[in-house]
Amino acid sequence: MNVDWVKKGNSYKVKLLALNAEKFKRDAITLMSSSQTKQDSWHYQWAHFEDDAPFLFFDWIWPRTLDDFRDRRVFDAGCGPGHHIRLVAPVASHVTGMDLNTNDIAANKLTAFQNVTILEGDIAHHQPQHPYDVVYCIGVIHHTDDPDLTFTNLKKMCHKGSLLIIWCYSQEGNQLMWRFIEPLRRTLLRAQQRRVVQVLAQLITLSLYPLVYTIYLMPFRWLPYYEYFQNFRRLGFRRNVLNVFDKLNAPQTQFISRSRVEKWFKPQEFEDFSITPYRGVSWRASGIVRHD
Ligand SMILES: C[S@@+](CC[C@H](N)C(=O)[O-])C[C@H]1O[C@@H](n2cnc3c(N)ncnc32)[C@H](O)[C@@H]1O
To answer: Computed from CA positions of residues 58, 64, 67, 69, in that sequence, does the dihedral angle turn out positive or negative?
Structure first.
């Protein structure tokens, strides 16, 4: 409910604004059973940044395409501000997005879609009344308390024949991140104001440009993050800052090995599955669930 406080002399008058019924319905659907602690830093990130590069979503879900969402009931696990729901909702029959920290931002940004429901909750514990036809989880599982538990729960939200898609950071190719940057971040940046971290991300991004447009244009494929910086050249400055900020801002990150992803997508449990590296720093994996 919107309550507008209007100062009148020494007293305050409460003016109740007309309720937008649809928006209220979405905002009000709140699941209270979350066991992961809420993390304000995600709210800051998605209140200040926007992902304006839809090609990334299509790269991350490959070899699946938008057609795999057509006329299906879809779940976006850890939807952030709802970037990907914007792409999927026009073709899906219904999309449910869930986020532990940014559901209010997503709900406000997606009011134009009548077939979208936004929930607040922990994707490692959500138990829907009916399973979904497609569950996707982009850039989230490695930020949850227990990625194995989260994956098991995502699978539980599916029925036989559902499609499950994840994209996550890989341990392989990210040594620099998990050996050096992550420990530094935890020690030096966790308690810093997010505004300070944002300025730092802008400076780091700026300093990367000379490298990425000189040495990284040479055929030196052995350079760290060589493939990753191919994307850097496709993105604008603000989107590159978002990438750097995201790395410095995330409250917790586990880098996931290929063998761990293979344990998730066991052949006994999934058919037609695919696990491929993306830009040398992440895994994109998907499969069709074999059993209810
Ligand atoms: C890197 S952002 C990705 C957002 C979105 N999927 C995208 O790609 O634009 C990670 C998101 O996961 C959410 N998140 C982290 N752990 C979660 C959990 N256990 N349950 C639900 N959301 C979670 C955060 O609040 C944050 O919005």
So the answer is: negative
* Residue 47 contacts residue 101 (beta carbons within 8 Å): no
- Residue 152 makes CB contacts below 8 A (sequence gap 6+) with none
Q: Is 38 within 8 Å of 238 (Cβ atoms)?
A: no
Is residue 210 over pLDDT 90? yes
| pLDDT for residue 192 | 93
Mutate to test the pocket of ligand 1, among 37, 140, 152 (most ligand atoms within 8 A of CB): 140
Give the model confidence (pLDDT) of 22-32 as tens digits.
Answer: 443 444 344 44
pLDDT 10s digits, 57-88: 999 999 999 999 999 999 999 999 999 999 99
Q: CA 113, CA 95: separation in Å to the nearest integer?
A: 10
Q: Can you tell me which atom of ligand 1 is nearest the CA of 78?
A: 22
CB of 140 within 6 A of ligand 1: the answer is: yes
> CATH for 35-292, among 3.40.50.150, 3.40.50.720, 3.30.70.1320, 3.30.750.24?
3.40.50.150
Residue spans per domain, the chain: 35-292
Residues 263-276 pLDDT 10s: 999 999 999 999 99
